[in-house]
Amino acid sequence: MNWFKKKFEQFSEKLNADDPSFGEVEKKARAAEEASGKKVVPVVPPAAPSSPRVDNIEALKEITLGAISNTVRMLGYSATKISGLVFHSAYKDNAIENVGLMSLVKDPQFISRIKREFRSRGIQYLEPLSVEVIHESPDTARVTAITEGIGVEVLTPGESLRKLKARVVATEGITWEQEYILEPSGKHYFIGRGKDPKIENGPKIHNDIAFVGIEEQNEEQYKINNFISRSHAMIVFDKEIGAYKIYRSKFLNNPSHKIKIFNASLDDFSGISLGNAAVPHVLKDGDSICFNDKIVLEFFLLTQ
Q1: Are residues 152 and 175 in the same domain?
Q2: Quick one: CA torsion of 133, 134, 138, 141, rounded to 10 degrees?
Q3: Whole-angstrom Cα distance, residue 301 to residue 167?
Q4: CB distance 50 to 148 below 8 Å
Q5: Most confidently modeled of 6-15, 51-60, 135-144?
Q6: In-domain check, residue 83
Q7: Does 39 reside within a domain?
Q8: 71, 87, 219, 268: which has the fewest Cβ within 10 Å?
Q9: What is the pLDDT of residue 76?
């Protein structure tokens, strides 16, 4: 907490670095008095309206909530539903300016306040409400401003469809392709060992995200892929909620085969297990999908 307070103080100082302090103006006034022999009243010019003072996290909350309210104020008169919020930052992910912003988007109480604001205005929103931060965004100046270099964009389901491609890459285990790009089209992306494996006592299937099978390349390096089933999981984009879902494969009959999802960036280290093929998990940016505690796929959202 002390580290966060220090960082936020640095953030405030940076925002106000261009504002002359009263002490500096007073010195100039005294110098003018000595030169002219007349009394000079120091005048401190007001802070520039484009760079609001942000003294603490509570102030940032109010400014952010106000910006969101301004963006959605007309939606209460329509049937449009909100599917998510995208915060655009002109700064790098480790910059001081992003410290407060990242703390907000990870604060469940603040997200609840946003939803209460929507309800009070008669605005409908989808659950789960998607909240995303784009660092070094080129669109910061084109969205509703929160403070200098940081803005917010409100997404509707149609906008989500245009924006939300996803990238999947294996960090443990070896796939045929270095990465896989998923489209928000409703296509079912099957995950498993082998490109076109034959399921035991079942059909021959095609894996869209395929790990190299020892049956295809009989080499030592591919033996790790034996920890993933021929048909282990499936990812599909749900147009109703504007998000990707992962399901346990219906061909995965052995209950000992595990699927677990973690998200270290959201401090989710306990993970969520998929044990029922009818119950999906909504994927978030940065999710790690772990198969049988050995094979790992990383999931990332992409914005066009």
Answers
A1: no
A2: 10
A3: 6
A4: yes
A5: 135-144
A6: yes
A7: no
A8: 219
A9: 66
